[in-house]
Structures are given as structure tokens and as C-alpha cells.
Write a structure and sequence with these properties.
single chain; mainly alpha; three-stranded antiparallel sheet; 9 helices; extended
Length: 260
């Protein structure tokens, strides 16, 4: 009996000594959330930078939305996803089973690739952009509840509104020129109007996803239109070719002789 107990004890010790942890899980944590930064980055691109770039507006060097200040851009540009379960680091060609492991690898092994000028953590703006949809879900949940905004802290909303406007103004100074004034007003309306206790505007989370759905619908429409036009052209060509072949192969009855 003691021999069996000893064997069981040794098996337990052996199992407990195995390392089942992914290597990068031991990396120290960083202060700037990469996942939140990615969500904010996508919203900034769609809701702010897309139109600014179309209108040839140059962001000020100290604008927090300026990609040259985004601390994670160099790492994001060195990612390569072969499949959803195979992520590759283009610095050292190592492969990882998901993006989170690759992020930890970047932080642990390639932090030296980030220049000291890149000081903006977009993840810190997650609340401003409602990057996780928390405010959007709360508004949707409370929309059917009478006087749902009575518990709203007006002072906190005013602080958040002011902070939002300061950031927008730094990127689009209203007094700079007509274009900057226009982009400033539009960005404040899109990003900052959510910070109200009464009749708050849609959060950037809602605006972003609505825009993505709209783009998807437009792309689908163009795809269907292209397919329809292509099939029509093929059908017309086939009918024309058939008629031509039928005409050239039909015998001329005026020249047929029967031999009697």
C-alpha cells in the first residue's frame, strides 16, 4: 500500500512540474492596452481621418490622432496574419496562435523598435470613443426607461465634454482656416455630443459600426451590379455569336440541285 502511495505522489509531482504556460504569458504587462488602442484607431480612421485625408488636411504634429505619435503603429505594421490562428512577427519570423500572444511578444522582445517620439496611447481614449460599446449598450438599455438620465452626473459629463473638445481642437484649430473649422465642428458633433445627460448623441461606437454596415451594403450593391452587367455582356455576346454561326452555316436553297 505504501508503494502505491509513493508512486501516486511521484506522478503528482511530475505533473505539477510541467510548464503548460505559453512563453509570452510570462512577459511583463504594459500600461497601454493594445486591444483598446486597435479599436480606437479604427474609429479615428473611419470617423475622423478618412474625410480629413480626402480633403488634404494635414494634422498638426502634436495632434493625438496623428499616426506618427501612435506608440503601437510600428508593431501593428509588422504583424502578418496567415489565418485567425496563425500570427507571424515580421521582425523575427516567429509564429503565434493568436494576436494577444503576438502583442505580448512585441512588448517583451521588440519594444526597442518604438521611438521615443511615439508617446500617444490610443487605448487611453477608449472612454472618449466608447471603444467597447459600454455607453452605447447603456443608452440602448435605458432608452425605454422613463427619466433614465436623472442619475446622470452633469458635472462629470461636462468634464468629459471639455476634455473631448480640447483634443479635437488640438487637431483641428477652429481659427486656423475654413477647412479646419469645418472638421473641428464635425468631429465635436460626432465624438463629443455623447457626453450629455439629456438627449445624448450617438457614441462613436455606434457611428463606427453603422458606417461599416453602410460600406458593406454599398460594396455588396456594386458587386451585384458588376456581376449582373458581366452576365448580361456574356449573354449578348453568346446570342450574337450563335446568330452569326447560324447564318454562315445555313445552305442557300437557290443553289441546291437535285440531279433530275
Amino acid at each position: 500500500m505504501m508503494a502505491l502511495d509513493f508512486i501516486f505522489l511521484m506522478l503528482m509531482v511530475g505533473l505539477s512540474s510541467q510548464d503548460y504556460t505559453h512563453p509570452d504569458m510570462n512577459a511583463p504587462t504594459e500600461n497601454c492596452s493594445r486591444s483598446k488602442s486597435r479599436e480606437v484607431r479604427k474609429m479615428i480612421k473611419e470617423l475622423i481621418l478618412e474625410e480629413a485625408n480626402e480633403k488634404k488636411y494635414s494634422l498638426p504634429a502634436d495632434c493625438p490622432f496623428n499616426p506618427s505619435l501612435d506608440m503601437h503603429v510600428p508593431h501593428e505594421e509588422k504583424k502578418f496574419s496567415i489565418t485567425g490562428r496563425d500570427w507571424k512577427c515580421n521582425y523575427c519570423n516567429k509564429h503565434f496562435t493568436n494576436e494577444d500572444y503576438l502583442d505580448k511578444h512585441f512588448f517583451r522582445k521588440h519594444s526597442n523598435e518604438i521611438s521615443s517620439e511615439r508617446v500617444v496611447c490610443l487605448g487611453d481614449m477608449c472612454d472618449m470613443f466608447d471603444c467597447e460599446g459600454i455607453r452605447a449598450q447603456k443608452k440602448k438599455r435605458e432608452s425605454s426607461i422613463k427619466n433614465s438620465y436623472k442619475k446622470c452626473d452633469e458635472k462629470e459629463m461636462m468634464k468629459a465634454m471639455h476634455k473631448c473638445e480640447v483634443i479635437i481642437t488640438k487637431c483641428f484649430p477652429p481659427d486656423l482656416n475654413e477647412l479646419s473649422h469645418y472638421l473641428s465642428a464635425k468631429s465635436v458633433s460626432a465624438i463629443c455630443s455623447q457626453f450629455k445627460c439629456t438627449n445624448p448623441g450617438d457614441s462613436p461606437y455606434e457611428l463606427y459600426h453603422a458606417k461599416i454596415v453602410e460600406k458593406g451594403s454599398t460594396s455588396q450593391f456594386y458587386y451585384i451590379a458588376v456581376v449582373f452587367i458581366s452576365l448580361t455582356i456574356v449573354a449578348v455576346f453568346a446570342i450574337t455569336l450563335f446568330q452569326y454561326c447560324d447564318t454562315t452555316t445555313t445552305p442557300d436553297l437557290h443553289f441546291i440541285t437535285y440531279g433530275w
